[in-house]
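Collaborator request log, item 7. Partner lab (contact: R.S.) asked for a structural prediction of tRNA (guanosine(18)-2'-O)-methyltransferase to inform their binding assays.
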Amino acid sequence: MIDLDYLAFLENILTENRKANFLKVLENRTKHFTVAVEDVYQMHNTSAVMRSCEVFGIQELNVIEQRFGKRIDKEIALGAQKWVDINRFDSVSGCLSDLKSKGYQIIATTPHEKDCMLEDFDITKPSALFFGTEKEGLSQEIMNNADGFLKIPMVGFTESLNISVSAAIIIQSLTNRLRRSDVNWKLSEEEILVKRLLWAKNSIKDIKRIEERYYQDNPRD
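Returned to partner:
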């Protein structure tokens, strides 16, 4: 349960403009779609995907680091790590199991012939969109466990796009369609409260000291 008194206390520290921006952004956030990236060697690509998630309203990014343990490149993410939830996994199977348990269908983004075109993709089902590297693509484990496949229509000679580019195109297209649909895609009231509290904490300098002082003055039962 969210401590509403504590939330009100923290939001009192914020400017009215900051609080209004939080509500405006949260109004457009969704967990109906989530994004997963697998073993992306170049750190800036994962960071760029995170930035696209933040810009287009995807609340959660799942990062599989089975081979390459990497930190998020803050220069590329440009602060997006404050506003997007990062779920880290050290195995493909762990990530797949977690997402399936949450009710997501697994969608592999690949350029194969039998894939569904982006504009034809069914947006009504909660979907986890998996992206691999430009060179190697997604692992066979993900391909074998995929419930569907998705590709971007291309008319040039080049057969694939950089992961950060393809992710941005797909996320923008699907979230734009989602917001124009009748699908119940928004965060729940409880999820919004959780994000308001976390974002308030992320916005306040010396939050640990402020938090300690608050609970000294307002001891928990």
